[in-house]
Structures are given as C-alpha cells and as structure tokens.
Amino acid sequence: MDKRMLWYEAVADCERRGEPYVLVTVVGVAGSVPREPSSKMVVTGEHSFDTIGGGHLEYLVTARAREQLAAARYETQLEHFPLGASLGQCCGGSVSVLLEGQRGSDARLVVFGAGHVAQALMAIMGQLPWQVTWVDSRAETFPAEIPANVRRHHTDDPVADVAELCADSHVLILTHNHQLDYDLCRALLNAGHAASVGLIGSQTKAERFRQRLLHRGYSEAQIDSIRCPVGRADVPGKRPMEVAVSISAELLSLAAVATPPARRRGVSWPALRDLMKQGEVAEASPNTPPVEAK
Predict the structure, then answer these.
(1) Is beta strand 76-82 parallel, antiparallel or unpaired with respect to 108-112?
(2) CA 168: distance to chain centroid?
C-alpha cells in the first residue's frame, strides 16, 4: 500500500484486498480545533492514511482504532475528545470522532492450477474482498497482471505445499493433470484443515476418484467433503467464464453460511445521545477545564 494515499483511495485499496480497516471521521467540533467536520483518515493494522489534524489527538484515535482491529471488533463507535492538556493540545475546543470498523474479508481461497477456468475465475475474484493464493508449477502460465487481492505461488511441488497453504481456506483444484488432482485430494484429506474443497471434473471423474480413495481407506464422509463436479448445478455452461461464474456463486454461498450477519449494527441510540450531550456541554462551557476522553 502507498502510505501517501488519501482516505478514499485507502478505503478502495483495503476493500480490493480484503484488509480490515477503521474509517475515522470528525463528526462534530466546538471551539478551536485542528480539522473541521467531515475530515477523515483510514487506519489499518500497520499504516494510517490521510489525517484528522495530527498531534496527540490523531495518535490517540489511531491507537483506539488499532485496539478495535486487534480485538476483531468491527463495530461503529463514537468518541469525544476535549483538546486540553491531557491530550497535549491546548486548542481549547473539543472533537467528536466516529470510528467505523470494517472487517475486510476473512474469506481465503487457494486455487491449484492456472489454466483457462482459473484465469476466468480470477477476473471475478479480483472484484471480491477475498484473499486468494494462486498455485501452479508452471510460471509461464500465470498472466502478467493479476488482481491486487491475488498472490501468485509458483512451486515445483504443489502437493507438498498443501499443509502450509490451505488451513482454514476454501480450496479449488483446477489443474491440467488428473494425477495431480488426485494427489492434491489425498493431501487435503490427510491435512483435514481446509474450509472446503472443490474439484473440477465430470461425474465420471468424481466416481473414479471416489473408488480410488475408498481403496486407499478414506471414509465416505471424507470423500463426500470434496465437491465434484464443482460449482452450482443451476448455473449452466461449459465455457471457462461460465464455469467460473458457477464456481464463484458456489463459493459465495459457502462463505455466507460461514459468516452469519451480526444482530446489532451501527451506533446505538444511547451512545449517540450521550455523545450529543457531551458536545452540548462543550459548546455551552468552552472555557471550563476539560475532562478526560472516554
């Protein structure tokens, strides 16, 4: 990420790459303050972009935002900061700040194979907030340009890398080699830590793999965890992009089941009411000694 980005560029970049962030907005001021309402900045786990005025106020707000991110509290909070000696800023005013935590995406995908279907799929996944690892032993097969949320992984032994790459990730096997597909299936079943496994192929291929895996001692339940043919049955078509649309629709359904929506969203009315009262007190008594920020 370019640390010189403005807040809206940083938001777009974080959304593209699925990185969690906090959008900070000055929503109210009283008296003399560093920046006016609607000033914004973006805070991630490692960087900050744009500014709400600098100084100790910005330092404290950044720390609060990173506390949210570290605790995975992707919530909306309102904070009120009197700019007194306690913040090392003697402007004499006060600032109310909205911190909007955005979870980015916990959805991770590992794709084995960089053929036509995989390349069509990347055109879709590049528009979604997923973190994608794209694996192939043939470096020349990867296109010159790939989406920002996709990481190439060139390896001479994809099967050996399964344990490292696939934990808690959705996995797609889209290679050009049936034996490699079979070896990847075995490695994934042995590891047993993928969020899901999809294998491209026909029903005939699925049945052949089933018999081979049964012969190797894998259980029916283990084999049934591999989706083959992969993709949604109600999305027809055999062109690479049609297959990619079918697969991406299935992935979105799987991810939606894994992350149900939170019951409570946004700022509660009591919190908003309390902040408004603090702002009214600050405006009515601009010369009174400031209180500590909550």
Answers:
(1) unpaired
(2) 14
Q: Which amino acid is at 18?
A: G
Task: Find the helix or strand (DSSP H, E) in which 11 lies.
Answer: helix 7-17
| Pick from 10, 223, 249: nearest CA to 125 | 249
Listed in sequence order, the residues at least 6 apart from 157 whose beta carbon sits closer than 8 Å to its beta carbon are 137
Q: What is the pLDDT of residues 145-167, one digit of tens each?
A: 999 889 999 999 999 999 999 99
Read off the pTM.
0.69
Burial 228-237 (b: 16+ CB within 10 A, else e): bbbbeeeeee
Angle at 179 between CA 175 and CA 182, to 5 degrees: 85
Residues in the chain: 294
Token representation of residue 193: 């830590």
* Measured distance CA(225)–CA(163) in Å, rounded: 17
Q: Which of 121, 201, 112, 209 is nearest to 161 (CA)?
A: 112
